[in-house]
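Per your request, structure below.
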């Protein structure tokens, strides 16, 4: 089964009002949709910033299959 690398940046507002960026890099099956990658990355980011609120995010891939 081929895999592909995916990168995400998730901007989270902390309970104290600070804005932090969580970087989430992962690999997964080739052809994951942006919404699938984003959902996984946002879940990880919110686990790292309890009580935080996602303000925005972006995802990308290098396009290479492994």
């Amino acid at each position: 089964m081929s895999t592909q690398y995916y990168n995400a940046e998730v901007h989270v507002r902390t309970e104290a009002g600070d804005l932090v960026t969580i970087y989430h890099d992962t690999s997964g099956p080739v052809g994951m949709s942006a919404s699938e990658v984003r959902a996984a990355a946002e879940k990880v980011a919110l686990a790292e910033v309890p009580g935080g609120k996602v303000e925005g995010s972006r995802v990308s891939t290098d396009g290479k299959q492994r």
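Residues 3-65 form one domain.

Regards,
D.
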